[in-house]
Every structure is written in C-alpha cells, then in structure tokens.
Amino acid sequence: MAINFFNEEIDFKLNHKAKLKTWIKNTVEEEGFKLKDVNFILCSDDYLLEINKQYLNHNTYTDIVTFDNSEKEDQIVGDIFISVDRTNENASKFGVSGDTELHRVIVHGILHLCGYYDKKPEDKALMTEKENYYLSKFKSLGS
C-alpha cells in the first residue's frame, strides 16, 4: 500500500501528511476497497490545465483530475492531480481554510476512485454528502 504526494511546478508544503494518509486509507476501507497505490500530484493551475487538455480534451481550469488505474474491482490504484492555485482560490470564495478545501478535493478524488460520480445533480449531492462525512472523520482524527 502506498500513498504518495508530489509537487509539480509549485513550491508547496503539505501539512499533516501522516494524518492524511491514515484518513485516506480509512476512507477507502470504509467504502469497501483495498488501497493499493495512489499518487497525489499537487500542481499549478497551468500544469493541470495542460493535463486537462491533453487527456480529457477540456480547455478549462479545474481543481482536480483523477485517473483510475485500477485493474481489480476491489483495489484502488490511481493518480490524482490537484491544482493548489485553484483550491486556494476556491477556499477564499467559499470562506474556508486552504487546508479544508484541499482536503475536500483530496477526498473527492478518492471517492471518484471508489466509483462515485458528480455529473448529474443527484450524483453531485451524494458526492458532497460523502465529502462532508469524510471531512468530519478527518477532523475527529486529531492532530
């Protein structure tokens, strides 16, 4: 089992790495999966825009792009690209801390790997409910 964090085109220090890894592992297990290998690539808006264009043919800024590389249905393997520029901007817009918004986006990517979608309104509502649930679990882990 491996959870890795990388930076691309940004100088960013991730807080609470060990706690985040425990939380991610617990989330995956609670959803009924085994965590095998997940890479989080924290990057700039421009870096993620290029990923979005190259792999998804979307010419828009986004906060996250998730690639599911799982070969077995019960295992989680993936690469999750997160724009720290975008999460910080969204944190200001939503009146939350940068860490809180980053954590929401992290769990959002994990939930995608667990089979949740967010295109239809009912799917988005369930995704948000799950994000809120797991964010409360992160807070209850203590520091």
TrEMBL record:
Which GO BP terms, alphabetically? Answer: rRNA processing
Q: Which GO terms describe its cellular component?
A: cytoplasm
The entry's protein name is Endoribonuclease YbeY
The alphabetized UniProt keywords are: Cytoplasm, Endonuclease, Hydrolase, Metal-binding, Nuclease, Ribosome biogenesis, rRNA processing, Zinc
Q: Write down how the cofactor binds this protein.
A: Binds 1 zinc ion.
As for family, the record states: Belongs to the endoribonuclease YbeY family.
What organism is listed for this UniProt entry?
Solitalea canadensis (strain ATCC 29591 / DSM 3403 / JCM 21819 / LMG 8368 / NBRC 15130 / NCIMB 12057 / USAM 9D)
Q: Which classification does the entry list for the species?
A: Bacteria, Pseudomonadati, Bacteroidota, Sphingobacteriia, Sphingobacteriales
Q: Please name the top-level EC class of this enzyme.
A: hydrolase
Q: Which domain of life is it from?
A: Bacteria
Provide the binding site for Zn(2+). 108, 112, 118
